[in-house]
Amino acid sequence: MTSNVPAETGWDTAPGLLDGAMNLNLTPRQCDLAYWLGGVAQGTLVGRAVTGHTDEEPTPAHMREDGPLRDALIMELGCRSVAETEATKVLAHYVAGAPDTAGLEFFATQLLDEARHAMVFRNHLLELGVLETELEATVAKVSADYTREVVDPILDFALRAVRDEQDFAGGVAVFTIVIEGVLAPAAELSERKWNVLDPAAGAIARGASIDEIRHLSVGSTIVRDHLLRHPDYRPRLMDILERGRSLWERIPDRKYVLEREELFQEGMRQHAELIADYEVFPGRRLLDTTPGERYDLAERWTDEMAESRFAYMGLDPAVMRIA
Question: Is the CATH number 2.40.37.10 carried by domain 16-320?
Answer without folding.
Answer: no
